Amino acid sequence: QLSFAALDVFEEEPLPQDHPLWKMDNVLITSHIAGLTPDFQKKIMTILLNNLKSYLATHNLQTNQVKLSAGY
Fold first, then answer.
1. Which residue among 38, 52, 54, 60 is least crowded, i.e. fewest CB within 10 A of its CB?
2. Taking the domains of the chain in order of start, what are their residue ranges?
3. CA distances from residue 52 to 6, 42, 46, 66 in whole angstroms, order as listed
4. DSSP assignment, residue 15?
5. Using CA atoms, how far apart are residues 6 and 28, in angstroms rounded to an integer?
6. Phi-psi region for residue 2, left (φ > 0), alpha (ψ -120 to 50) or beta?
């Protein structure tokens, strides 16, 4: 059993005003901004540049590659 959940992404966005999650005391809902941290842009640019260099050299990505076999 979960005691608390912080949710940022939903199947339907924006989450409808009458959705039951809005009324739950143990749920924190953010507006799809949970990934925006102070160093977000620096990190995303590092990932982009590493992947671009790797792709140009080997036609493969190095960082944050999706693993469909793992279910995501």
1. 38
2. 1-34, 36-65
3. 33, 15, 10, 16
4. P
5. 5
6. beta
